Amino acid sequence: MAFRSNGRARAALLGGAVLAAAPFAAALPTAAAEPLRICASSVEAPYSEAKAKGFENKIAEIIAKAAGREAEFVWSDKPAIYLVRDYLDKKACDVVFGVDADDERVLATKPYFRTGYAFVTPADVQIGSDWKDAGRDEFRNFAVRFSTPAELILKAAGKYENNLSYNLSLVNFEDKRNKYTQVPADKLVNEVVNGDADMAIAFASDVARYVKNASKPLKLTLIKDDFERSDGMKIPLHFDQAIGVRKDDAELRKELDAAIDKAKPEIDAAIAEEGIPTLQPNG
Amino acid sequence: MINLRTSVSAFTLVATAALGVAATGLPAAANDKLVELSKSEANWPMTGKNYSANNYSTAKQINVDNVKTLRPAWAFSTGVLHGHEGTPLVIGDKMFVHTPFPNITFALDLNEPGKIDWMHKPKQSPTARAVACCDVVNRGLAYWPGDGKTPSLILKTQLDGHIVAVNAETGEEFWKMENSDIKVGSTLTIAPYVIKDSVLVGSSGAELGVRGYVTAYDVKTGAQKWRAYATGPDEEVKLAKDFNSKNPHYGQFGLGTNKTWEGDAWKIGGGTNWGWYAYDPDTNLFYYGSGNPAPWNETMRPGDNKWTMTIFGRDIDTGEAKFGYQKTPHDEWDYAGVNVMMLSEQKDKTGKLRKLLTHPDRNGIVYTLDREDGTLISADKLDDTVNWVKQVDLKTGIPVRDPEFATRMDHKATEICPSAMGYHNQGHDSYDPEKQLFYMGINHICMDWEPFMLPYRAGQFFVGATLWMYPGPKGDRQGYEGLGQIKAYNAITGKYAWEKMERFAVWGGTLATAGDLVFYGTLDGFIKARNSKTGDLLWKYRLPSGVIGHPMTYTHDGNQYVAIYYGVGGWAGVGLVFDLTDPTAGLGAVGAFKNLQHYTQMGGGVQVFSLNGKNPYDDVNVGEWTGPKAN
């Protein structure tokens, strides 16, 4: 698809939509509606964190309200990567926010936004939107999350091996065997702020809030979606984000699809508030 | 070379003559004081007793007939908990004791046993603790006898990656070098190894992107002499011009980079070495094994991954490899190949006397090679329950795998034997040259390997595996006992003279003596002595904590002593040490050893035994305070 770089312009336009959406606040849940049980990790900032301060926690509240339900968070103190297997599939809760629209483990709703991988650099660094721009000689240290397309970009750009030690230092060389170890999203940005990393490469919504609030001017540059591995396999860099329900829960999906439509202005406002540059959803 | 005097073979007689008069132009051996020191029953100057690393003593004051009267003589607490691997050194009147992190060294006076002559306690970055994968162990010390100008030295490694030379008389630091950079995840747990005037040190931290290497330092100054990597271009792996010329099918040149690795993956390919060394003054080669390739997830590193998992014979002076035999090409199980190398001189099946190297590998195979050229002579299963491999083809050297027990991403494998811990881990075993038997402490542990992939968002995925470890088929899977074995192995016939089950692993290794005895410690805290001919259990003693080190023996003032470290820990004890309860934690070790806590708890020290507990304090005046010293 065509790359769209008008995220900021869209965000500016959507700013006005919040007011237009205000009447939704008056919609009261019907007495009969059951609470919407949301699977949520308390350790997945910026998406989800205790006291429902995360970006996706806010979206969940908006959707629940639009569906006329009360948002009931079912908290896990493990990373969100385990939510489908350990919570949703075991019916401890009914929805997981922020799944890829093509996630095969779940039945996904229509997307509620789309964004992509981005370079995070100091604001004065000139950089294009091609993945190959990461390969420039002056970029030596990269902060990326493990097992992401960002790692594959480093590999393809010839930067992975020399960067490995630095990247492992971001998790104190903690053993990755047999357990999930990941670089905290805010750390990716802090490394660029303090100059230890020349850039971070991350999914835009992983880092948007920290870029926005950084103590030094940074910028997010979305990367064009034309990345292939050396064997020719296309590695997508842009993703539709949706809500996942259990595969046999078509009714709930239908209800959530309607709520997404209904609450779109509020959702867009929350995304803008978070500072995420967005792309047009894929259908 | 302690076994030279007792061996009856014609070959060794020739070798003895060479030692004495350098008749065959081998002055290196004659110059080496360590060879002389190791011949004496009074000394235990290196981790494996002698350059043959056979943990064998000719002492027989303690023997099959009287071992039941073995009693505690004295003991020393190191004041450090966590796993105590390796064994103390004894040279003359001093015993040198080491500890896990913070890596304290004590020099004890054997005339007043337990009196501390000096103590060396380094300051280290606490980061080191966080980086170490499997408890904070250290495998021991090395000794250099001095040359009149430079004092005798104790060489030690620190977890934070330093090698330190300490004056053996005073405990003062003589030199200190950074061998491994803790900032890039590289630690040191290996015992340094002195050969002539060089000291060898390996490296740890394969999983953290470390490219493994072995380095030789000038023992007098700490200056680096050479460094040889396990992966990479031939000149960095240091291959001799005639590398593997006798066995070209092992592979020769240009294989350490993208011919057996994808792209630049060799740069972070692991192959560290943190086990043991052996040396033959005649071939001037030292022997050791490189460890597992990295990263652990094998799909990330297609290819044979040379020269990880390799038995190397390298020239001590140049570092150049004369041969390299890769045991487990493209490892999928974490069968790190760093285990002990024991040297022997035996007649092969055709009656030809040969210089041999025997190596019980983590992968469940015990290999015997001709140590002059690396030719594979035998490769036998450590136990008939080994199943990842059907057999090793002796002609090609290649293991014939059973795909059912592979650890592919699309395949759940159950009952893989051995587990990732190996049927043999870091234990330092022994060889009795008179009986021509190797005494091996074995883990009897298998595993289920369940891969899983968890997608997250935006194309992110987490590939992992859950490891469940439990007793092998001969153990008790309900009670989680029967996790170890002790065996006597003949490398020529491939037969086991005897074998016995143990409740827990025999993690630390064995000691053999001319008294027809084999000693070893168990994870649950016993030191035991068996008849080395029959395997009959003759004596045991309950130690304050479990054992993961190997016993040693020395004779002082006419009395033979047996000493052993207690202090449970290491990978096997990681559950106890860090109070872990998830059975898949510690890479599955916590589950396998879940009942260990009912048998032992943490501790740390040396326990010394003698017949009837005879010791210097039998004279009650020894060590008494007799008033201020006269000026």
UniProtKB/TrEMBL annotation, chain B:
Per UniProt, the keywords (alphabetical) are: Calcium, Disulfide bond, Metal-binding, Oxidoreductase, PQQ, Signal
Where does the sequence pass through the membrane? none
SMART domains attached to this UniProt entry = PQQ
For this record, an example GO cellular component is: outer membrane-bounded periplasmic space
Q: Which residues bind Ca(2+)?
A: E207, N292, D334
Q: What InterPro entries does this protein's entry cite? A: PQQ_b-propeller_rpt (IPR018391), PQQ_MeOH/EtOH_DH (IPR017512), PQQ_rpt_dom (IPR002372), Quinoprotein_ADH-like_sf (IPR011047), Quinoprotein_DH_CS (IPR001479)
What are the residue boundaries of the Pyrrolo-quinoline quinone repeat domain, all occurrences included? 44-377, 506-562
Keyword Disulfide bond (UniProt): yes
PROSITE patterns documented for this protein: BACTERIAL_PQQ_1 (PS00363), BACTERIAL_PQQ_2 (PS00364)
Q: Which CDD domains does this chain map to?
A: PQQ_MDH (cd10278)
Please report the name of this protein according to its UniProt entry: Methanol dehydrogenase
Q: Tell me the organism.
A: Methylopila jiangsuensis
